[in-house]
Amino acid sequence: MTALLDVRSVRAWYGEAQVLHGVDLRIDAGEIVLLCGRNGSGRSTLAKALVGLVRRTGSIRFAGDDLSARSTFEIARRGIGYVAEQREVFPTLSVEDNLRLGIKPGVAGDAKKRLAETFARFPMLAERRATHAGALSGGEQQMLVLARTLIGEPSLLIVDEPTEGLAPAAVEAVKQCLLALRERGGAVLLIEQRLTLAGAVADRVAVMGHGRIVYDGAVDRLDPAIVDEWIALGALAGRTDGEPGRPRGD
Hints:
By secondary structure, the chain is α/β, with parallel strands linked by helices. It has 9 helices and 10 strands.
């Protein structure tokens, strides 16, 4: 069966610094794959490489289409949604206007329906629909960025640390969104350090180390030795702050 996303021998750079050293990864339709690893392992760089935000080589195929030379907006139009870690909202626009920007061209007639469904899914955003996005808390902005991406109905959602700083109710809302996307046949690449969350939603876990995939398999078969060597300390307990003394990233 053809994979929804088929990544082979992908390498990526920031300037002259090479971060990815030959990544292979497959994601099927209706599958949630957790991507984890220590800070600096290349997780966020892989996400950026998939959507054309860094210089990369190798093969990236999505639904049979070669994305290796595609620009970011072309990749988005083909059905890949990307939620970056930085919570990038349009601060001077309202919550509702931010959401409208996520609706794909050509579906304007369904905009009202899409907005109603989104507000039903994220009641905390419905309460603040007229508020400027810049006035939201960090957790609310995270929910807004996720909702803005989901309103475009991507076939593949790439989401980087979506639950960091969220209250338990918001974490549960994120979890339900990911499961709902999978139910309708979509796929998710979830960059997240919490293996506890992964156990609840992920079909598979891929572990990165030094810019490569060092483990790809079932969550319940993840060897504790791999956790100790390649995954940030505290991941099993649900911490997301990475290694002691090191800044977050990748």
